[in-house]
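_Full entry_
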Amino acid sequence: IVLTGGDDRLWKTWGFPDGNILLTGEGHTDWLSGCCFRPSGTQLVTSSGDTTVRIWDLSRRGCILTLRGHSRAVRGCSWHSCGDFVASASMDGTSKIWDVNSERCRYTLRGHKESVNSIEFLPFSSTVLTSSADKTLSLWDIR
């Protein structure tokens, strides 16, 4: 299964080798910039130009949580390997670490001078890697 998101504001899961669309999700009001599966495979996270991050439940086929807090488009998102945290990177120059269980922002990471374009958790750690339009990479310890 492959997951994609695009300018059509939709995410889609595709089956292979046939390439058929298995599921489609709609709810964002602007382009999708990122999407990835929760490590358990039961949910996914998406980021969008509409400034939100959304959590989707695949069995319910719908959005179960919308995370708001960025002031500009969200450029990327990722899950922590434990499945309890989501990270987001935004054109507002910040990144956020979201606690999925409490449905709140746990940390806002400030330090880049321009748009934060990508974010990834290092596997099985409390370290986050961000890249920015200011031509820097940053490693963050989110403990």
The chain has a mean pLDDT of 96. The chain is about 0% helix and 60% strand. The two ends are 33 Å apart (CA to CA). The first strand starts at residue 2 and ends at 5.
